[in-house]
Structures are given as C-alpha cells and as structure tokens.
Design goal:
Radius of gyration: 20 Å
Order of helices and strands: EEHEHHEEHEEHHEHEHHHH
Protein name: Enoyl-CoA hydratase domain-containing protein 3, mitochondrial
Pfam families: ECH_1
GO biological process, one term: fatty acid metabolic process
Strand content: 5-15%
Function: May play a role in fatty acid biosynthesis and insulin sensitivity.
Strand order of the largest sheet: 1-2-3-4-6-9
Largest sheet: 6 strands, mixed
Structural class: alpha/beta
Oligomer: single chain
GO molecular function: hydro-lyase activity
C-alpha cells in the first residue's frame, strides 16, 4: 500500500496527470497514473517521466526513487491505441514511431544515469515496455500475483527495445524464451531468472520497496552515487579494463571524506555522519 507521504513546501505532490510525483522523506515516489489504460506509456506519460528524472537527478535532497503504477497494473507497455491512431498520418506513423521509441529509450537511459537508486514496485502486469521499465530499474520488488512478459511477438511486433534492458538482467536463453514465446512469467519465476529482486505478498510491494529505499537512503549519498555509476560503466568493459577502471574509482573513493568517516565510525563502533563529500 502507499505510505502516507511527508511533503516539503517546495515539492508538493501532484494529484492528476499521467504521472504522480510525491515525497516520503528522502524518497521520491513516481506513480504511473493511467489506470484505465493499465498505465500504458502514452507520449504524454513518457514526456512526464523524462521531466521527472530531469528534476530529480540533480536534487540532493532525494536519496532514492520508487517507481510504481496506479492499480491494477504496473505498466502494460506502449499505448497501442495511440500508435494505431498515428498510422492515419501520411507517413503511416513513421515520424511518431521514431519519436516515441527514441523518447522511451531516452527515459530508460535517464533511469540508468540517475545517481539515485531507482526501485520498481510492481503489482499486476508489467508487459513489453512495462517489463523494460522493471528491467531498467536498479532494483525491483513484486507482489506474488504480478506477471511479466515481452509479448510483442504475439502481435507481430518483436520487443526489440525492451530486449535491451531484458538481456542486461537475465541470461540469454531466459531472455530469448520470453521474447520468442511472449508468455507471461510469474513473479516467482521472474525472481529466479534475475528480473526482480524479491517477491512479497500481493499488495505489499510498495511497503517493501519503500523499506528498501529508506535503507539505501541512509547510506552515504556519495558512495551510492559512485557505486551506481561504476556498476553500469564497468559492466560493458573487458575484464582487464574493468579492473583498471574500478581500481581508480576505489582510490578516489578512499580519499573521499565519507569513506574516511565511515571507516572511522566502523573502527570506533559509532554511527557515521555522512556529508556526501
């Protein structure tokens, strides 16, 4: 269930529109808000997500982000009705298709580039680009009745852009099975193959995601920021290059004030006081 939020005067929650934004202490909460359309990614929703991450990314008061969907779904992927309407244009929708896929890809990259951990809280279905969203988030918690799929193959549209995030989370054969069959995957199976971190009772995903967000928010923001950036960069490097790069990062990290404070606090058996430097 949604926790009661505490809001600062300069960051009020929005109550309408395709995306709701809220705050609970140091955690930002983004809620896909197209329940009647199962929170499908219309162009307006994609634009709202892009704007939200543009605002949150530099905000030092936000330490973690939880992304969820208004019940009953997390996200059913792209808005197929909007896509079909675009076919009436003289170019049969080409300009719209190019624009929406580029915008969606930009949002996915913004989530990865955001220095704050992004945690998906999933209830209901997460399909196609919705599954892509889950795979793109740094962490994901799902209710046991949640379901995941990349079902484009069933309607003649291979889930090529969702494949990018999916193949960076699960093994090649599991990814290919999802992409080639389009079958729904249970929350338990999604956890087994590495698409999500944890399965909880239906209805408890938000509470669990918020607990995880608060736990991470209590860490040094410098350390978390450094770790997330380094994780994604080294993953694409050859082994020797990755070790050389991470050794440089660890050296710089050791020289940071927060590392000095954290190690000192550990040795002194006291709680560290983070400055983010």
């Amino acid at each position: 269930m949604m926790p009661e939020a505490t809001r600062s005067d300069d960051a009020p929650a929005t109550s309408d529109g395709p995306l709701l934004t809220d705050r609970d202490g140091e955690v930002a909460i983004l809620t896909l808000n197209r329940a009647a359309a199962r929170n499908s990614l219309s162009e307006s929703l994609v634009d709202a997500l892009a704007a939200a991450f543009e605002t949150i990314t530099p905000d030092r008061t936000v330490k973690a982000i939880v992304l969820t969907g208004a019940p009953p779904a997390f996200c059913a992927g792209h808005d197929l009705r909007e896509m079909t309407e675009a076919r009436s244009a003289g170019d049969r929708g080409r300009a719209y298709f190019e624009r929406i896929f580029a915008k969606c890809s930009t949002v996915m990259q913004a989530i990865v580039a955001c220095p704050k951990p992004v945690i998906a809280s999933v209830e209901g279905i997460a399909t196609a680009a919705g599954c892509q969203l889950v795979a793109t988030c740094d962490l994901a918690v799902a209710g046991e009745s949640a379901r995941f799929a990349t079902p484009g193959v069933n309607i003649g549209l291979f889930c090529s852009t969702p494949m990018v995030a999916l193949t960076r989370n699960v093994s090649p054969k599991h990814a290919m099975e999802m992409l080639l069959t389009g079958d729904m995957v249970s929350a338990g199976r999604a956890e087994q193959i590495g698409l999500i971190n944890k399965v909880v009772a239906t209805g408890d995903a938000m509470d669990s995601a918020m607990a995880l967000a608060r736990q991470i928010a209590a860490k040094s923001p410098l350390t978390v920021r450094t770790g997330k950036k380094t994780f994604y960069r080294q993953r694409e490097m050859p082994l020797a290059e990755a070790y050389a790069y991470t050794a440089r990062i660890m050296t710089e990290n050791m020289l940071a004030r927060d590392a000095e404070e954290g190690i000192g606090a550990f040795l002194d058996k006291r709680t560290p006081q983070w400055t983010g430097e």
